[in-house]
Amino acid sequence: MQKESGALAARQRWLAFAVLSLGTLMIVLDTTIVNVALPSIRADLGLDAAALAWVVNAYLLTFGGFLLLSGRLGDLYGKRRLFLAGIVLFTLASLACGLAGSQAVLVAARALQGLGGAAVSAISLSLVMTMFPRPEERARAMGFFGFIAAGGGSVGVLLGGVLTGTFDWHWIFLVNVPIGLAVIFFGRRLLPANQKARGPVHLDIAGAASVTVALLLAVYAVINGNQAGWASFQTIGLLAGSGLLLAAFIWLESRAKDPLMPLHLFRAPNVAATNAIGVLWAAAMFAWFFLSALYLQLVLGYTPLQVGLAFLPANVIMAVFSAWLSAKVVLRFGFRRPLAVGLLLAAVGLALFSQAPVGGSFILHVLPGMVLLGIGAGLAFNPLLLAAMGGVRPEQSGLASGVVNTAFMMGGALGLAILASLASFQTSSLLENGAGQLLALNEGYHIAFLAGAGFALLAAILGAVLVRDTKTNRT
Description:
Layout: H1 2-7, H2 10-29, H3 33-45, H4 49-65, H5 67-77, H6 79-99, H7 103-131, H8 135-166, H9 171-174, H10 176-190, H11 205-223, H12 225-228, H13 233-255, H14 271-299, H15 304-310, H16 312-333, H17 336-353, H18 362-390, H19 397-432, H20 437-466
């Protein structure tokens, strides 16, 4: 694959990268763009709270459940083929979401979006790595890609506010259709040709079934934890079943002739450490995306459009650091120091949010945290992704990409559920003791922001201690 990538003209490589980036951004946006529009969807379709939750949960369930399998399928049957198949499915599902007039159609279409998104997310990172074998170009490309991964969620909040406020909720899905068609058209012409596994292809059916069901059970338990209760038989049973299936998966992989996930993958430099960091970092990022949007909307009274615009400074800063400065920093200092510093700055930014008062102002209480989070995310994501993928053989890059994305998704879902539970518990306790609604809400968010800062701080410590710099990232 590297030989093929080297044969591509530099201009064609960057055009192909633009196609990958556009497809990936479309997927990343959909994890958060819908949140700002949920009140409008609820009013239009007449959904109750439980039904409305499934507009988000159906997507997370299939997205998280099929990431690892999608990465392996790309390695076996061709990355470009699976990437384009995922875009086709995601685009058709987006059209169905935009035209949906009932809960059943919308939830089913969201589940299909998750399947398409899993295929695209599991493959796109590995394609970037194989298209850019030179350290300088790879660092620059991963800087742009890191902005998409880190900033796409907050861009989704901005875009969701603009589309919902200007048109209606249908357009947060319909906007994907022309974008998806463009990615399909140009992707067929610009992306590197399919590179399949050599020799006979044997898909590890037992491993695929066990890990996919394990992830599905885990995601289902997490996204329903608040509703069912974290100590309920349902939640504990699902998590226990997921753990048993994961243990069975590891046992099967240690004995399979052609395993879905070779366990020696985690002996590659930085793979285990960066995936652990990814889980913690995603939990902290979800605290930022979701809880700060709730603080702005429910405590400060911002409109959806104002909430989106409030994220704009962080997006601009993140873009500058990811696309230009982060690559230079990585080439000069390696992975470890930029990663640790970026995560530490993000932790401080979340800690500042935990001090924002009920009558807070944007300049004094919102902007400083946004700035630090923008710098931190822009600085940290490039070295994190490079460290996670740099020591993996090309024929396993799709699998490694699926593992990284699975770590991020599971960390985000689990972290958000934990933080939302903390916020809800604190708010309920204060309301029972006679506190006002806004004060109770704000104090609940404070606890969650502090916990998110703790996740980011722990990730920074792990990055400083466990991540190793490699010779391939230097010029």
